[in-house]
Amino acid sequence: MPSVHRGNFPNRQTQFSARRQKIMQQKKSLPIASVEKRLVKEVRKNDVLIIVGETGSGKTTQIPQFLLDAGLCRDGRVIGITQPRRVAAVTVAKRVAEECGVELGQKVGYSVRFDDTTSGSTRIKYMTDGLLLREALLDPYLSKYSVIIVDEAHERTVHTDVLMGLLKKVQLARSSSVTDGQSGRFHKMPRHEKYAPLKLIIMSASLDARAFSEYFGGAKAVHIQGRQFPVDIFYTRIAETDYLDASLITIFQIHLEEGPGDILVFLTGQEEIESVERLINEKLPQLPQENQKLLIVPIFAALPSEQQMRVFAPAPSGFRKVILATNIAETSVTIPGIKYVIDPGFVKARSYDPGKGMESLIIVPTSKSQALQRSGRAGREGPGKCFRLYPEKEFDKLEDSTMPEIKRCNLSNVILQLKALGVDDILGFDFIEKPSRAAITKSLEELFLLGALTDECLLSDPVGHQMARLPLDPIYSKALILASEFNCLEEMLITVALLSVESIFYTPRDKLEEARTATKCFSSPEGDHITLINVYRACNDFLEKRSMEMGIAKTEKVFRKWCKENYINSRSLRHARDIHKQIKGHVEQMGLNLSSCGDDMLQFRRCLAASFFLNAAVKQPEGTYRALASGQVVQIHPSSVLFRKKPECVIFNELVQTNNKYVRNLTRVDYLWLTELAPQYYAMQN
DNA sequence: GAGCACTGC
Question: Pfam families recorded for this chain (predicted)?
Fold first, then answer.
């Protein structure tokens, strides 16, 4: 740079202090700043406090700082703040470290799976709720925390719900004034002076704090004002029969009649998004030339991240951006520039049928709070408008809030963790909302069949305890334990890592043939599990050969290139590699026998049969399959390498209901292996 | 010959 220009740039020191000044100003202007004293007083006075704070109140970043300044971290103890999502934990921690003027990982840090920045001097610790649950397995009293703040509690994720039940117990066990023998495992341990009382703060964005307050014995609730711009809500006069068509019309109506500002449309899935995108692009040329400046940007979780990033780029000058999004834009991703929201009122949600042991995704109406959350996305930067594509009287009929996830999912993992935490009576556990008896019984039964529970329904030793230690689906944890006996733990580690992530195969519709040719060289005639291992090892071999020649940064680039060339989703494969590394560490610590079966894939397939005997299916004369455990008639999913082969007997990992009932991720096995390797179960069946 | 909202350990 020519030296004459140098004087025109502020030096780093001035830049730094200018930024700090701006941060301090922003901090002071937050609605929460004026109630610091009152909040601290309430926290001191109440063991449990519910804080209702609307979007933009600053509760997540400010309250931990208030409490630290007020001296709640004395004796080296920590304020823990849980978040349902990793990104939130990471970004908020970075922001707060900056506000405090400290290096991340010192006074302020975060800890999420695969990424822990905390140190001995960390006093404000942001983390995911699932991680705190794991910590409780090692430290049942959560003894290093003086305060635990559960943020975004209104989202009611499984982890948040279990955590609240657990924290209630921990608080009771740590309070010196209470003497009871009803607090699960805690009564087995002597109450000790070193466990100072634990303060709990439950933070929620939903206006209704009643459920939380009642759950915590009538806990005090305080409200904090948010900073949200007004959003006008519009309804249709009559019910729409086709909400995709209605969305399309509304997009064009806004585009032609309303002022500048981007549009966010909430659709239920990839297919709908792609079809609306196609329809817009078909209609666009029919508009007058000057009205054709619309930029369509899709976003959903399965989209490769480079394409996801397109939503953050501003539209070219004169263009209006239309974002077609799934629920990802409701909470996980905040998109700037949105002034108009179109909400057809539907969402794709998971549901679980304990009778059939089957999860499925179904399209259902949103709840009121979800509709509110969606409309709020139009008022982040200025006043906005939200178009709900249903009549107002339909809104009144919606459920107030979405059914908590814990009532819609398989509970095996939850129950295994609770058992490991010393909660033996699952039906009697104080859930904020109790799952159905049928769902609890079904999962208890499954855990029993996997050998995790004894006849008395207690955690078995060592199998049950080992399974609970592994952060995996219980059936995969069991597979690892068995694999060490079958001498194929190396193969099984790769398999369960890959089964734990989204599909690693990336097949864009327009390049179907190329993708197929690319992945063909990995496929095994025995089934999908060995095919997955082949991909994983091919990638490893490639990287090993290359990494001798280059550094880490370059390896990363080469990794992405390899994935792209082979039509592999690099995000999924990286995730699987992280899981593989983490679980490998766990099984080594547990002293399992880390051996390989080499080329003896028969041995590995026998191990698969022994592990997944609950998920076996046999071919029927018509060519369909019968799942042995539930008796359901299923088909092989077309993505399987066994789709055409149709072997007599298979084990599978997933049974999903879409247009048909499909099984996915399968391997060919011998029916006789099942009766040999799981005789208790197959004798019972016959 | 299909189609998979979103998180998380």
Answer: DEAD (PF00270), HA2_C (PF21010), Helicase_C (PF00271), OB_NTP_bind (PF07717), WHD_HA2 (PF04408)
